Amino acid sequence: MSEARPLQDPAPSLRQIHGDQATTGSQPLRRRRRFTVDALFADTSPRAVGTRELATAKEIRLDRIEPDPDQPRRSFDEERLEELAASIRLEGVLQPIAVRYDAERDRYVIIHGERRWRAAQLAGLESIPAIVREVGDEQRLIQQLMENILREDLNALDRAAALRRLKRQMGDAPWEQVAEAVGIKRSRLFQLLSTEKLPEPVQAEIRAGRLSEKQSRPLHGLPERAQAALAELIVEEGLEQREIERLARALRAAPELAQLPAEALRARLRELTRAAVSRAVTSSRRGSRRVSRASELVTALERLRQLLEGIDPGSLDAAERQVIAEAMQRLAPVLRRWQQSTHAAPGTRA
Predict the structure, then answer these.
(1) Domain chopping of the chain, boundaries
(2) Strand 97-102 vs strand 127-132: parallel, antiparallel, or unpaired?
(3) Terminus-to-terminus CA distance in the chain, angstroms?
(4) Residues 263, 288: contact at Cβ < 8 Å?
């Protein structure tokens, strides 16, 4: 009778045989890769290389979004809003806005993109793509200022008001720190702040975009009446910067002009402008035929301007207005060509 063999133990595990590192021959066995649910649904195509999903991007109903009451921008150009709305109707909102969530009021407050939100409403959309961010009050205002100031997308007065709010939120920090926070030079900061000292009629022109901050610089230091009169002339005549500075110097040299009634002061400024044009033509005249033709053109254009200013279109009958309108249509392309040529670099053709 043969000796009974003991029952064989179950096959030992690879870990028991080879220790912590299981091997097959001379190569270690690789552990099986574990996948998460998110990884199973991840985009592994070539187009996904170098990209990542934004978990905070949402499509939010317009009625759940509201403007930030501390937004630096205070005015919106209605015509440009309509243009943006027309684009949104055709193409949709191409760039998401940025918002923060106000838990107390259960509303999303705009950080960037109020123009897109307003235009989306005009376009008749019900929702808009948005990225939700969590930022503090000070950082939010800095971001809004950076977006608008660096793009020169705000008028100077709105930027000045926003800079003052930022200074308060920074604990009444020195202006140097405020300028550094938004990335602008100290001199530029004070140029913006100086617009707040201009009289209200001049500020209204700046807010409307008809007068730039640069154009308003020569006005500083003039009497208020002179500031308003010169600003009005700048808007009406489209004066160049050099001419604005020359008129400002003339007003400083003759302070009695500022005592004239408003209409008389504007008339005097127009005379100074015409005199400057006449002197420019005369000083460049050297007997050449070209200068003579330029002088004739300037005289004719000035005469035309005076005629147009002196005639009320309402005083003409329908037939007269029709004839003049046809003449204007013939003249318009010629004037545009001349305007392009005179703004071209010397020695070039437009």
Answers:
(1) 58-135, 136-196, 292-340
(2) parallel
(3) 119
(4) no
What CATH architecture is 58-135? Alpha-Beta Complex (3.90)
Six token digits for residue 7: 């029952």
Identified catalytic residue from 104, 114, 152, 232: 114
pLDDT tens sequence across 145-172? 666 555 556 789 988 888 888 888 888 8
Determine whether 91 is an active site residue. no
**pLDDT confidence of 13, banded at 50, 70, 90?**
very low
Q: What is the pLDDT of residues 98-109, one digit of tens each?
A: 898 888 889 999
CA-atom Rg of the chain in angstroms: 35
Sole residue written with tokens 């003052």: 164
CA trace torsion 144, 148, 150, 151 (10° rounding): 150
Q: What are phi and psi of 27, to 5 degrees?
A: -100, 130
Q: Other CB atoms closer than 10 Å to residue 25's CB: what's the count? A: 5
Reported as type and span, the H/E element at residue 132 is: strand 127-132
- DSSP letters, 72-120, are S-----HHHHHHHHHHHHHH---S-EEEEEETTTTEEEEEE-HHHHHHH
Identify which of 255, 208, 201 has the alpha carbon closest to the alpha carbon of residue 233: 201
Which residues are CB-contacts of 73 (< 8 A; sequence separation ≥ 6)?
A: 114, 148, 153, 154, 158
- Residue 36 region by backbone torsions, left for phi larger than 0, else alpha for psi between -120 and 50, else beta: beta
